[in-house]
Amino acid sequence: MATIEDGSVDQTTIYKKHISGQGNGLFAKQDLRQAVVVLNAPTPSMVALETPKLSNTCYQCFRDTETHQGLVPDAAEQVPELKLCMGCKVVRFCGKVSKW
C-alpha cells in the first residue's frame, strides 16, 4: 500500500489530513497541473466513478468512450462497447482487461 511515510506520495504537492467523521484524505497544497503524479500506487485500493461517468467509462481500466483516455497503455485506441455489469447493473466494462 502506498503511504506518505514510504515515499510513494509526493509530499511537496499534497498532504494528509483527517476530517472528523469522514476519515483521512489527501489534499493539494496548491493548484496542480494536469497529469502531475501525486501518488504512486501499484494498484488502486479503492475506486469510484462520478455518477455522470458511469454510462461511458469502463470501471476496470477507466477508458472513457468519449475521450478515449484511461489507465491502460493502449487507452488511446477505440474503446469497445461497454457492457453493463450483470451483478450490480450499475457499472460497465469494456472487456479489454476486465476480470469481472
List strands and helices in order, with pairings.
Blueprint: E1 14-19, E2 23-28, E3 83-84, E4 92-93
Antiparallel strand pairs: 1-2, 3-4
Describe the structure.
By secondary structure, the chain is mostly beta strands. The chain has no helices and four strands. The chain has strands at residues 14-19, 23-28, 83-84, 92-93. The chain has a two-stranded antiparallel sheet. The chain has a two-stranded antiparallel sheet with strand order 3-4. Strand 3 and strand 4 form a beta hairpin. The chain is globular.
Instruction: Give the topology string: H per helix, E per strand.
Output: EEEE
Number of domains: 2
Cα distance spanning the termini: 23 Å
Largest sheet: 2 strands, antiparallel
Q: Quaternary status of these chains?
A: single chain
**What would the average pLDDT be, to the nearest integer?**
75
Number of helices: 0
User: Helix proportion of residues, in percent?
Assistant: under 10%
Low-pLDDT residue intervals, each spanning 5 or more residues: none
Beta strand count: 4
Backbone CA Rg: 16 Å
Structural class: mainly beta
Strand content: 15-25%
